[in-house]
Structure formats: C-alpha cells, structure tokens
C-alpha cells in the first residue's frame, strides 16, 4: 500500500495528470483495506479541502466504513 500511496503522491504533483474523485476514492478504499485508517482520514480531509474534487456517494460510503473500523 505504501508503494501505491507513493505513486498517488507523484500523480498529484504531476501537472499533466488530473487526480479526480475516482482516484481519491480508490486510494481511500485501499488504505482502509490495509488498515491504514488514519492515513485514509487524512486523505479524506485533503479531498474535502480541494475545491476541484467532488465528494460523492462512494466517498461517503468508504469513509463511513473507515470510521466503523477505526478504533
């Protein structure tokens, strides 16, 4: 999961590639599946603060699942 997160960070810093809602949701889901709940919540906060990213039903469903699992 660390490798995927590293690639995600590279994508965000690449001016030629737009990181969209689908990419954010996929990363948050992957972090959740790997029990990296705090990092998933941090990414959700980042997503909320990015005016170019639209939160959707998948976003909220995934975050609810993160919160259920997070202890």
Architecture overview:
The model has no long low-confidence stretch (mean pLDDT 92). Helix 3 (37-49) runs antiparallel to helix 4 (57-69). The protein has 71 residues and is mostly helical. It has 4 helices and no strands.
Q: Which key features would you list for this structure?
A:
single chain; 71 residues; mainly alpha
> How many beta strands in the DSSP annotation?
0
Average per-residue pLDDT, rounded, comes to 92
Radius of gyration: 12 Å
Q: Return the structural class.
A: mainly alpha
Largest sheet: none
Helix content range of the residues, please?
Answer: over 70%
- Which sequence of SSEs, written as H and E, runs from N to C? HHHH
Q: Number of helical segments? A: 4
DSSP strand content: under 5%
Overall geometry comes to: globular
End-to-end CA span: 20 Å
- Uncertain segments are none
Structure summarized in a few sentences:
With 71 residues, the protein is mainly alpha-helical.
Which secondary structure elements does this structure contain, and how are they paired or packed?
Layout (H helix, E strand, L loop, with lengths): L1 H12 L7 H13 L3 H13 L7 H13 L2
């Amino acid at each position: 999961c660390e490798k995927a997160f590293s690639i995600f960070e590279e994508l965000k810093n690449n001016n030629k590639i737009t990181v969209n809602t689908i990419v954010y949701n996929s990363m948050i889901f992957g972090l959740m599946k790997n029990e990296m709940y705090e990092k998933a919540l941090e990414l959700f906060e980042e997503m909320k603060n990015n005016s170019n990213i639209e939160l959707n039903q998948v976003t909220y469903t995934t975050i609810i699942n993160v919160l259920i699992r997070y202890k």
